[in-house]
Amino acid sequence: MKILITGGAGFIGSHLAELCLERGDEVYIIDDLSTGSMDNIRFLMDDERYRNRLFVTIDTILNHEVMLELTGTCDWVFHLAAAVGVRLILEKPLESIRINIQGTEKVLELCNKFKKKVLIASTSEVYGKHLHAPLVETDNIIYGPSSKFRWSYAASKLMDEFTALAYHRTHDLKVVITRLFNTVGPRQTGAYGMVIPRFVTQALHNEPITVYGDGTQTRTFTYVKDVAAALVGLMEREEAVGQVFNVGGTQEISIGELARRIVAMTGSSSTIDFIPYEKAFGRDFEDMQRRVPSIEKIHRLIGYTPKTDLDEILRRVIADMHQKKG
Ligand code: UDP
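# uridine-5'-diphosphate complex -> structure
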């Protein structure tokens, strides 16, 4: 199978590329390295086994000619290229909206032209600020006002979902939509705000752990390799076409507790500092207080259950970052 991964040099994309290469697929990556990095895929490019099966293009998905060629070549497309991380969305709102909306439209247009099956990586952000759990794919969504730019990310990803579903309805394009819940693991960088790599880096340097707000907000983390396997599993099933699936973990944890656990597991002398949101992100910010997926739908279809529990995820991230620290 020939597989195109947009954003394949990113954190999730690189793990997905690795899985596809292990499966024996031919993998085509396109990445503009805006948040992705060659460091994420160099070990794959250097691997003799993959010498004639991995092709990397450094370019934007908005480049029509390049995407035309790549989409025409491949059998499946995993569309992961997007603006990532709350911090990036707040710092570069226009670029983020543009790449999410125009980029996805471009991918869908070309997939439709060649009738290629495509998976769109959406996000748990689309649910907005729910307090109930677990979140089911058919739940209503609740956003804050447009003055609070965090929601532009959710809205742009929701538009991506609508566009994909519209291509399915109008042109019978085979689309699969996944809402990813806080995916974590080795190679994720804290540079765009992601909490686990940030806390682990801070702990390994014995620096204060920066908990935003009062730390009672919760998240449910998923190991990136479990996510990559789920994405491939969904693409293999015809019943997934035209459907939206949560992909997430089952262990809800507060950010305050996460900080304490990381300090304990690293044996760090870090203190835990509580930083008001306003100081971390400016005035126009609001957080999501709770985010827990229902994974019933994906479990029913492909038997998905997360294999890696939170402590094991943390152990692996700590080991990876410890090694990189030298
Ligand atoms: N967070 C934090 N300190 C940090 C980075 C993040 O307390 O240094 C919090 C953030 O406010 C959110 C949670 O950790 O409540 C998860 O943040 P992340 O950016 O990883 O993902 P999100 O779920 O917000 O997309």
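# post-check
The chain has a mean pLDDT of 96.
The chain is about 45% helix and 15% strand.
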